[in-house]
Design brief:
With about 300 residues, chain A is mainly alpha-helical. Chain A contains 13 helices and 2 strands. In chain A, strands 1-2 form a two-stranded antiparallel sheet. By secondary structure, chain B is mainly alpha-helical. Helix content of chain B is about 75%, strand content about 0%. The chains are: A mainly alpha (about 300), B mainly alpha (about 300).
Chain lengths: ~300, ~300
C-alpha cells in the first residue's frame, strides 16, 4: 500500500509479493457480487416467497399473517380486470412509443449524420431531453397540455381535458416518452451510421443506385444491429413504465401500468402478497421479452453475417 | 424517402421526411439541411423552454398561454428556496447521488479490474450476471425492499436509497470500466510488477490514473441515474427526511395554499434540471461515448 514499496528493491522474486492474483481477483469482485446478491437476487426470491403467502398490513403496526396460499395471489391477479387493463396499457404504450421513437430517432440520426456543420451543437441539443429528469419531463408536458397554462388547446382551438380523458391521457404519456427518448435512439443509431464506410456509398453511386436504393439496400441493413440493440433497450424500459403515469395521472384514466398497479398494491394498500405476485408477473414478462429479443437478435445478426 | 411515409403520425412523417431528404441532399441543398437542424433543435428545446416560460410567470399571467412571459419574475424561484421541503430534498438528492457515485466507482472499478486483467474463473458468468441485473425491473425489488427496509429501520433513510442505487449503477459502470481498463497497455502494469509492486498497487497507482476518463464517464452516468431515479425514491421514503427531489416534486403543493402551484413546480423542475444540463454541456462527448459503448456492446 505504501508508496515506498513500489520503489523498494525487489530483484530476486520476479513475481510480486502481496495477495496472490486469483485471491485478489476474488476479493475485488466480491463487493459487487455481494451487493447484487443482496439487492437484486435476494429481493426477487423474497418477492417470490411473499407472493406465495397472504401477508398484508391493513392497520399500521398490525401485521396480519395468514400463511401460505399457493398460487392464489397469482390467480387473483390474473383474474383481476384492473391488472389486465394495466397490462393492455403497458403494451399499447410500449408498441406506440418504441415505434415512434425508432422512426423519429432514425430521421434525427440521418439528419445529424448529414449535417457536418453544427454536428457538435446538435449532439449537445439532442442530449437535453435525455438529461431532463423523467419527473421533470412529466411536469413539463403537464404545463404544455393542461389549460390554461398550456399552449396545446390554444393552438388547436379545443378545450380538451387532456389528462382527464381516457385515450388522451395515454397519448400525452406517449408523447412525453417519445420526446425524452427519441434523441437517445438517434444517438445510438448515429453511432451505427458513423461506422459505415463512405466507400460503400461511392461504389453504389457508380453502379447507378438511386438514393432510395442506397438507403434501403446499404444503410438500413448495415444499421440493423444498432437499431435492434436500441429497440431492446427501449422495449425493456417501456415495459417498466412508472414515472410518467405516476406524476401525470396517478395511474388513473386509462394509464395504469404493470409497475404502477403493483406498486399501489404493496406500497399504498400494503397488500404484500398480491403486490409481490404482480411484481413477479412484471419480472417474468420483462425477462421473457429480453430472452426472446436476444434469440431474435442473435439469429438476425448471424443471418446478416452469412449473407 | 418513402420510408418516412410509413410513420403513422403525419407530423412525425413530415419531420423525418424533411430530414431524410437532408441526409441524401449533400452540400448542394444546404437549405433543407438547416430546416432539419432547426426542426431537431425546436423539437428538443421548445418543451423545456415552455417550462422556463411558466416558471417566470405568476398570478394572472399563469392563466394565459403567452409564449413570452408578459411580466417575467423570479418570485417562483424565491418561493421554492424558502420552501423547506424543497431545500431538504435538494440536500437529500445531493448526498444520495454523490455517495452512490463515489461508492459505485470504488466497488465497480475493483470488479472491473479483476474482470479485465486478473486471473479469475467464471468471468463470463459474472459479466452475464451483471448485465442481467441491468434489465431487472425496479418494481420487482421494490416490494421486497419496502418490506425489508420497514422491518430493519432502513425505510426513509439515505442508506435505504444508496444501497439499491449502488447496485443498479454497477452494471453500466462495470461495463464501461472493463472496456477502459482493457485499453490501457499491459506494459505499464508489467513494469510496475517487475519493480516489485503488488497487483493491487499496480491497479491503484498505474491503472486507475490512466483510466481517469473512463472513471469520469462512469461517474457522470451513475450520478445522472441516481439523481433521476423515481420509483424507489417514492416507494422507500415517506417524509422530507430522506425524500429526494424527483419524489418531493411529485408531492409538491406550492409555496402557499392559495397560489396555484404550477409556477413554483416549474421553477423547482428547472432548478433540479440545471446540474444535469451543465453536465451534458461540459461532458457531451464522454456521455455519448459511454452510452453508446454500454448499449452497443451490452
Amino acid at each position: 500500500m505504501e508508496a515506498a514499496s513500489i520503489r523498494a528493491p525487489a530483484p530476486a522474486k520476479q513475481r510480486s509479493k502481496g495477495i496472490p492474483e486469483r485471491r485478489l481477483a476474488k476479493l475485488m469482485v466480491a463487493p459487487s457480487l455481494i451487493l447484487i446478491a443482496l439487492v437484486a437476487a435476494w429481493p426477487i426470491i423474497y418477492a417470490l416467497w411473499l407472493s406465495l403467502h397472504e401477508y398484508s398490513v391493513r392497520v399500521a403496526g398490525l401485521s396480519r399473517w395468514a400463511g401460505p396460499v399457493g398460487l392464489r395471489n397469482y390467480s387473483n391477479a390474473l383474474s383481476d380486470p384492473d391488472w389486465w387493463a394495466a397490462f393492455t396499457h403497458t403494451i399499447i404504450f410500449t408498441v406506440a412509443s418504441v415505434s415512434l421513437e425508432l422512426v423519429i430517432g432514425l430521421g434525427m440520426a440521418l439528419a445529424m449524420h448529414a449535417a457536418f456543420r453544427g454536428q457538435g451543437l446538435l449532439r449537445t441539443v439532442v442530449l437535453v431531453p435525455w438529461a431532463v429528469l423523467t419527473v421533470v419531463t412529466a411536469i413539463m408536458w403537464q404545463t404544455i397540455f393542461v389549460s390554461p397554462y398550456g399552449i396545446v388547446n390554444t393552438i388547436l382551438g379545443t378545450d380538451t381535458v387532456w389528462l382527464g380523458s381516457s385515450p388522451q391521457a395515454l397519448i400525452v404519456i406517449i408523447i412525453a416518452d417519445v420526446w425524452k427518448t427519441a434523441p437517445f435512439m438517434a444517438l445510438l443509431i448515429l453511432a451505427g451510421l458513423q461506422v459505415i464506410p463512405g466507400e460503400v456509398y461511392e461504389a453504389a453511386k457508380v453502379d447507378g443506385a438511386s438514393t432510395w436504393q442506397r438507403f434501403a439496400r446499404i444503410t438500413l441493413p448495415l444499421l440493423m444491429p444498432a437499431i435492434l440493440v436500441a429497440l431492446i433497450f427501449r422495449t425493456l424500459d417501456a415495459l417498466r413504465l412508472f414515472d410518467l403515469p405516476y406524476v401525470l395521472t396517478g395511474g388513473q384514466v386509462g394509464t395504469s401500468t404493470l409497475s404502477t398497479i403493483a406498486q399501489e398494491q404493496f406500497a399504498t394498500n400494503r397488500i404484500y402478497g398480491l403486490g409481490s405476485a404482480m411484481s413477479v408477473l412484471t419480472f417474468i414478462i420483462v425477462m421473457a421479452v429480453s430472452f426472446a429479443y436476444i434469440r431474435f437478435v442473435g439469429g438476425n445478426i448471424r443471418g446478416l453475417a452469412e449473407e | 424517402m418513402e420510408a418516412a411515409t410509413t410513420a403513422a403520425r403525419p407530423e412525425a412523417a413530415e419531420r423525418s421526411r424533411a430530414r431524410t431528404k437532408k441526409a441524401k441532399g449533400g452540400p448542394s441543398t444546404p437549405w433543407w439541411m438547416w430546416v432539419a437542424v432547426a426542426a431537431i433543435v425546436i423539437f428538443c428545446l421548445f418543451p423545456f423552454y415552455w417550462l422556463i416560460n411558466i416558471s417566470l410567470k405568476t398570478g394572472a399571467d399563469l392563466q394565459s398561454s403567452d409564449i413570452i412571459p408578459p411580466h417575467p419574475t423570479l418570485a417562483n424561484y424565491k418561493a421554492i428556496f424558502e420552501n423547506p421541503d424543497f431545500t431538504k430534498a435538494l440536500r437529500n438528492s445531493a448526498v444520495v447521488a454523490l455517495t452512490t457515485t463515489v461508492l459505485a466507482l470504488v466497488v465497480g472499478s475493483f470488479c472491473a479490474y479483476a474482470l479485465a486483467r486478473l486471473k479469475l474463473r467464471g468471468k463470463f458468468w459474472i459479466l452475464a450476471l451483471v448485465l442481467t441485473i441491468s434489465t431487472f425491473p425496479a418494481i420487482t425489488v421494490a416490494a421486497a425492499l419496502f418490506k425489508l427496509w420497514s422491518d430493519i429501520g432502513l425505510f426513509n433513510t439515505w442508506s435505504g436509497l444508496i444501497i439499491p442505487y449502488l447496485t443498479f449503477a454497477l452494471p453500466l459502470g462495470i461495463y464501461i470500466l472493463v472496456s477502459f481498463f482493457r485499453e490501457i497497455p499491459r506494459d505499464l502494469e508489467e513494469a510496475a510488477l517487475v519493480d516489485g509492486a503488488t497487483h493491487f498497487q499496480a491497479f491503484r497507482k498505474v491503472v486507475v490514473p490512466l483510466a481517469a476518463p473512463g472513471l469520469a464517464t462512469a461517474g457522470i452516468l451513475t450520478f445522472i441515474g441516481a439523481w433521476n431515479e423515481f420509483l424507489l425514491a417514492v416507494t422507500l421514503t415517506s417524509t422530507s427526511k430522506a425524500r429526494t427531489v424527483p419524489a418531493a416534486i411529485a408531492f409538491f403543493t406550492g409555496a402557499t395554499e392559495h397560489e396555484i402551484p404550477y409556477g413554483s413546480i416549474s421553477a423547482a423542475s428547472v432548478v433540479i434540471s440545471i446540474p444535469l444540463i451543465l453536465l451534458v454541456l461540459f461532458f457531451q462527448k464522454r456521455i455519448v461515448a459511454g452510452l453508446t459503448a454500454g448499449a452497443v456492446k451490452g
